[in-house]
Design goal:
Layout lengths: L1 E5 L6 H12 L2 E4 H9 L4 H12 L5 H12 L8 E4 L5 H14 L5 E6 L2 H10 E4 L5 E3 L20 E2 L6 H15 L1 H7 L4 E5 L4 H14 L1
Parallel strand pairs: 1-3, 1-4, 2-3, 4-8
Antiparallel strand pairs: 5-6, 5-7
The chain binds adenosine monophosphate.
Length: 217
């Protein structure tokens, strides 16, 4: 099963991907994570990437497609995967179709998480991530707070705040979403496997709705 999650920043793509990864044994592919990893290396590309990521703009399609292609060919993707943050525009979606044809795979589900802008801003400024296992918390939401400040409940690792999780980057990222990513909803709606979820709700309610779609459609 291959799944694409389309949503604005901090809508819960990463959180839901981590849950679905465990429940269905799918690989979780976050192009944001792949790019953050590439940006932490020490080469010419990493300096450029750090600037783009901090600004909230999208990274060049060629770089993203290269990273994605390498990732989906890894063995843990054989059972299927969740795409979190890819495609981000129609050009990437078109190129991805060529890649899918090459590797003989298809898109099974496209899930769109709809969330209001004010809720996203509250989520983004409170988001904390574990450096060690990637678990995601939110200090602005009672039910998603870690038990101890800045310590991961799951593995005891240290939590950090992403450099682009601030109001200024959010405004740019949200704008990029509306202009470049949201048109994908129209692009994919012709296929008959696109589902909208009201993601203004709790994490568990969102998961239940996604599971319902994956298991009954
Ligand atoms: P995310 O972790 O999905 O919130 O992505 C963080 C940042 O990585 C974005 O603001 C973009 O700068 C970059 N990024 C992630 N995925 C893509 C993509 N598919 N295409 C272009 N840029 C991306």
């Amino acid at each position: 099963m291959n799944l694409i999650l389309i949503a604005p920043p901090a809508a819960g793509k990463g959180t839901q991907s981590k849950i679905l990864e465990k429940v269905y044994g799918l690989a979780h592919i976050s192009t944001g994570d792949l790019l953050r990893e590439a940006s932490s290396l020490d080469d010419d590309l990493s300096i450029k990437l750090r600037e783009i990521l901090a600004s909230g703009q999208l990274v060049n399609d060629e770089i993203v497609l290269e990273l994605l292609k390498r990732r989906i060919l890894q063995e843990d993707c054989n059972n299927g995967y969740i795409l979190d943050g890819f495609p981000r525009n129609v050009e990437q979606a078109m190129k991805y179709e060529e890649i899918l044809a090459e590797v003989n795979r298809k898109n099974d589900f496209i899930i769109v998480l709809d969330v209001e802008k004010e809720i996203l801003l509250q989520r983004i400024t409170g988001r904390r991530i574990c450096k060690n296992c990637g678990s995601i918390y939110n200090v602005n939401i009672e039910s998603s707070k870690p038990k101890s400040d800045m310590i991961c409940d799951n593995c005891g690792g240290t939590l950090y705040q992403r450099e682009d999780d601030n109001e200024q980057s959010f405004i740019k990222r949200y704008d990029e979403y509306l202009v470049k990513t949201k048109p994908l909803v129209d692009y994919y709606s012709k296929e008959g496997n696109l589902y909208h979820i009201d993601a203004n709700q709790s994490r568990d309610d969102i998961t239940s709705q996604i599971k319902l779609i994956l298991e009954t459609r």
